[in-house]
Specification:
The structure holds two protein chains of two kinds. Chain A is mainly beta. Chain A has no helices and eleven strands. By secondary structure, chain B is mainly β. The chains are: A mainly beta, B mainly beta.
């Protein structure tokens, strides 16, 4: 049973860099994509981006200039950094397994984001 | 960039009734669409992927349909535990990306 657990600072000052980590247990990080999603208080879900075991990333264009994702396969962890934060970045940050399989002939098939962490709340305030 | 639009924003339904939720993509996404359920204080839960395939452990009263730009999530007979917010999400291989709709809240009538 794969489980994800986010860890973060809780409080970040405006203009600083937000850092959140996700630890994967019960399975290997060396397959699938691994996504970050956030949810501001009382609002909907926003996909931030994903990373795979090789370090290949894809970011939401609206956040791309401020986002950096990394992965540590030896620790089964992946991380998110969001720079120059403002109050608008206050949200619950979730990590999720973005389940993909590579079918014969190299075709990718996606099974959705099927495992989620409980989320970590990050507040941007001075 | 593909934009996902859900309707209605809020759906009021009595227990035992059918609920029909809509999701529209700004351009064709084939069947690359998932549905999620979220309850207060919890992370989202995957219901449907591939537009119509139920995820593991999801009851048969949940069904998805559609392709390209028009999708529907149907809950055939609402149970008390189904009152929640539902999100659609597209996923594309090329250009790579994902996007969520803004959500539909299903509330007790």
């Amino acid at each position: 049973q794969v489980q994800l657990q986010e860890s973060g600072p809780g409080l970040v000052k405006p203009s600083e860099t937000l850092s959140v980590k996700c630890t994967v247990s019960g399975g290997s990080i060396s397959s699938h994509y691994w996504s970050w999603i956030r949810q501001p208080p009382g609002k909907g879900l926003e996909w931030i981006g994903y990373i795979d075991y090789s370090g290949t990333t894809n970011y939401n264009p609206s956040l791309k200039s401020r986002v950096t994702m990394s992965i540590d396969t030896s620790k089964n962890q992946f991380s998110l950094k969001l720079s120059s934060v403002t109050a608008a970045d206050t949200a619950v940050y979730y990590c999720a397994r973005d389940h993909k399989e590579v079918l014969p002939l190299g075709v990718y098939y996606f099974y959705g984001m099927d495992v989620w962490g409980q989320g970590t709340t990050v507040t941007v305030s001075s | 960039e593909i934009v996902m639009t859900q309707s209605p924003a809020t759906l009021s339904v009595s227990p035992g009734e059918r609920a029909t939720l809509s999701c529209r993509a700004s351009q064709g996404v084939r069947s690359n669409l998932a549905w999620y359920q979220q309850k207060p204080g919890q992370p989202p839960r995957l219901l449907i992927y591939g537009a119509s395939t139920r995820a593991t452990g999801i009851p048969a009263r949940f069904s998805g349909s559609g392709s390209e730009t028009e999708f529907t999530l149907t809950i055939s007979s609402l149970q008390s535990e189904d009152f929640a917010v539902y999100y659609c999400q597209h996923y594309s291989i090329w250009p790579p990306g994902r996007a969520f709709g803004q959500g539909t809240r299903v509330e007790i009538k």
